[in-house]
Design brief:
Number of strands: 2
Structural class: alpha+beta
Largest sheet: 2 strands, antiparallel
Order of helices and strands: HEE
Length: 67
């Protein structure tokens, strides 16, 4: 009976690790979706517009400003 309990521990660990890694990968892909390379700009109108993002021109590159 002891053998069955010990075999369940690694399986529980795998069941916990897989969702954590999946969430990390989803957040990483979503975060890099819009601004992989910051486009060069001269003023704020040169930067692309996205819904719910505050994008401004800072130091000749478009930057997403946090609210």
């Amino acid at each position: 009976m002891q053998r069955g309990k010990n075999m369940a521990k690694p399986l529980k660990f795998v069941y916990v690790v897989i969702p954590c890694i999946s969430i990390f990968l989803v957040l990483t892909v979503y975060d890099s979706k819009y601004f992989q390379i910051a486009p060069p700009c001269v003023n704020d109108k040169d930067c692309p517009r996205f819904k719910n993002n505050n994008v401004r021109c800072r130091n000749d590159f478009c930057v997403n400003l946090c609210n």
